[in-house]
Design goal:
This protein is an alpha/beta fold. Helices cover 40% and strands 17% of the residues. The strands form two sheets. It has a seven-stranded parallel β-sheet with strand order 3-2-1-4-5-6-7. Strands 10-9-8-11-12-13 form a six-stranded parallel β-sheet, with helices on both faces. The model has no long low-confidence stretch (mean pLDDT 94).
Length: 364
């Protein structure tokens, strides 16, 4: 029996970010007798997905963090890795900030490279410059949205690979809702919720500002926050300063996001910029009204449940959130119709990898 094709997926970390979640959704549903994912990370810290990756048969390799001054050493790590692992013929670069660096090495060694845009902008002049080099070294170009693809690749052609999910896991369930509202002491409250890393791009202070505006108008309101990040201490200090500790529930990283979404009433994401956030697709799959920044691409609204609002106009956010809402609807068919079903996307990607392997002269 032929061994599976081993695709090397490159990330910064293997925590529960949007790109990592998208990749893991595909990994769980792809035929692993034909396609196996291995991973490169750029941190010594153990990511939340690592245990599951190993159970699914994937290998994890740690590359040094790229610091500009260590360009020679970084390129050497990649050359040594690819010499040692000839099975890694396809390099799928989700860590797009420095994709051009490791893609250049890979292409010089006869490997196939796939760029993948997961954001529509990035801060820092140097990072922007490095990002713009990716088109030179990508054999194939993927993007989560039109906006992300145009930003990263310019006028070069690219293929949209939607941030698909297992829709059935997120469908609204009244029993699950009641169970989680009981466990988290949410009954009799209007529950705002967000699923976001506590990092500047997600605008965590904006989440607090929105909650405060809503809470001033409707006291029996709570906020449930799923996510971790470098700004957690700052967020906790702000919560204490505003004296709203009893109304904010910080859940950290969770593996039951699909169930937590059942318990909340309104989804928030006031990000400064995004590619196409998986979390908003998940929220829509749960039938939730989504109040999100107008910096997020309109492509994310696949059900009519998204409300786009300007940053800093928090009073406007509160007024719209507190308007009368319709009962939660079953959005499954809308999401399937928009192309976000993980089963279909996994089959497409599997066939794509198999075609590349055949073109490379592989026997798998």
């Amino acid at each position: 029996m032929n061994c599976p094709i081993r695709v090397l997926c490159v990330f910064s970390t293997l925590d529960r970010g949007g790109a990592e979640t998208m990749c893991m959704n595909l990994y769980r549903h792809i035929d692993r007798e034909k396609i196996q994912f291995d991973f490169v990370k750029h941190t010594s810290e153990t990511g939340d997905f690592e245990e599951e990756i190993k159970k699914l048969g994937g290998c994890i390799y740690e590359a040094p963090q790229y610091k500009i001054y260590n360009t020679v050493q970084y390129r050497k790590w990649w050359k040594d890795h690819l010499l040692k692992h000839p099975e890694h013929k396809i390099i799928h670069g989700h860590y797009f900030t420095i994709s051009a660096i490791y893609f250049n090495v890979a292409k010089n060694m006869g490997r196939t490279t796939i760029g993948h845009a997961h954001a529509s902008t990035i801060s820092g002049t140097l990072k922007q410059y490095l990002c713009k080099q990716i088109s030179k070294y990508s054999d194939y170009r993927f993007a989560c949205s039109e906006q992300a693809g145009r930003w990263l690749y310019g006028d070069k052609p690219f293929c949209i690979v939607k941030n698909a999910l297992d829709i059935d896991k997120f469908q609204y369930n009244e029993k699950v809702r009641q169970q989680y509202r009981d466990e988290l002491n949410l009954n009799d409250y209007l529950i705002l919720g967000t699923v976001a890393n506590m990092s500047p791009v997600k605008n965590p202070m904006g989440v607090i500002d929105i909650f405060l505006e809503v809470h001033r108008r409707k006291e029996n309101t709570k906020l449930v926050w799923v996510g971790e990040g470098g700004q957690r201490n700052t967020i906790e200090e702000r919560i204490k300063q505003e004296r709203i500790e009893s109304y904010i529930i910080l859940l950290g990283q969770r593996r039951d996001v699909n169930k937590i979404l059942q318990a909340i009433d309104v989804f928030l994401l006031p990000s400064i910029n995004e590619g196409l956030p998986v979390s908003v697709i998940e929220a829509q799959a749960s039938g939730l009204p989504c109040y999100i920044s107008d910096k997020i691409t309109s492509e994310v609204d696949i059900t009519g449940l998204c409300h786009f609002l300007p940053l800093d106009a928090w009073s406007q956010w509160a007024k719209e959130i507190l308007t009368k809402r319709e009962p939660r609807e079953n959005t499954k068919q809308k999401i399937i119709g928009a192309g976000y079903d993980i089963h279909s996307t996994a089959i497409w990607l599997e066939e794509f990898y198999l075609r590349i392997n055949k073109e490379q002269g592989g026997n798998n």
